[in-house]
UniProtKB/TrEMBL annotation, chains A, B:
It comes from Aquiflexum gelatinilyticum. GO terms for molecular function: DNA-binding transcription factor activity. This is Rrf2 family transcriptional regulator. One of its GO terms (cellular component) is cytosol. SUPFAM superfamilies: Winged helix' DNA-binding domain (SSF46785). Gene3D superfamilies: Winged helix-like DNA-binding domain superfamily/Winged helix DNA-binding domain (1.10.10.10). It holds the Pfam family Rrf2.
Length: 145, 145
DNA sequence: ATTAAATAAGAATAAATAGTCTTAAATATG
DNA sequence: CATATTTAAGACTATTTATTCTTATTTAAT
């Protein structure tokens, strides 16, 4: 059950690293994040460009440049990140992919699927990066070995 | 949120057609199913071979041959079809795809993800093809326009 | 100015998934 | 036996997703 693309997985993991290891008002270099999280620098750079253009990150070029959260970690929800990286139609998906689907008389799995999607969306929209980072820093949970 | 591959989507749709349009003890040709469900004949044939080798369908070659359910529609669960077509590790997936994940101290989204996957698995394992086909035949729901 | 350090942009390549096509094998019927 | 019908098998092609690479631009420091 592959819910997220590699792009989203890496993006979320990298953001969690940033939030769990804050660098007071400074920019953090993509190279450092990629190295610490064992991700491809070039791929992560591409992912971060998307997050920057979606207002989740700010970036700054040149020496001592890098990326920083554009908003507080409390106000960035998993939903924001997923929509930015998967597209805004992420929760419009159809389980069976029928062509010409009409909600008027839906297909036999729609009732279930509607609820499953709503639950996921609900969880994503109620989970902030800071909530997850708190768990990491409380050592209840880990980002990597 | 793409939960299923095209292979699974088409496979489920085609099976539902078969169950909703039973042909008493006879084999139904893949060509007919593909035509009625507007699927590629060759692709559907490939998918059905997988279902046949997994004991969900029986097949028979030659004139008046085709495919037929290998078990009663009451006893074929959505879960059986999904595992046959997506692989038995379908529900072992990881939301964030961390390498070297240890459940001992899981990553920050694991508690939620575990429950979401269990819910989906539960629903699939409690939903039979006949249950869905009944809804179709009661016209509460539709397979296509 | 020059250099070094960083992200931006997007082309190029690789891998995975989806879909098509060709040939072979099985079976029924005349 | 000859032919038509149908699935089996797998090679082939196309599309999408993932990843890497190259070049350009911005910025700080000397
Ligand atoms: S009704 Fe069925 S086909 Fe339409 S969106 Fe819902 S799950 Fe998909
Ligand atoms: S603990 Fe996290 S990394 Fe491990 S399987 Fe669960 S979701 Fe994935």
């Amino acid at each position: 059950m592959k819910a997220l693309s590699q792009t989203s997985k890496y993006g979320i993991r990298a953001l969690l690293y940033m939030v769990a290891n804050p660098s007071q008002g400074e920019y953090m270099s993509i190279g450092e994040i990629a190295k610490e999280m064992d991700l491809s620098f070039h791929f992560l750079t591409k992912i971060f460009r998307e997050l920057t253009s979606n207002g989740i990150l700010n970036s700054y070029r040149g020496p001592a440049g890098g990326v920083a959260l554009a908003k507080s970690a409390e106000s960035i929800m998993l939903l924001d990140v997923v929509l930015a990286l998967e597209g805004n139609d992420y929760f419009d998906s159809c389980l069976l992919g029928f062509p010409r689907c009409g909600i008027a008389k839906p297909c036999p799995v729609h009732e279930f699927w509607k609820v499953a999607k709503a639950d996921l969306k609900d969880h994503f929209s109620n989970t902030s990066l800071s909530q997850l980072a708190e768990k990491i820093n409380a050592d209840e949970v880990r980002l990597y070995d």
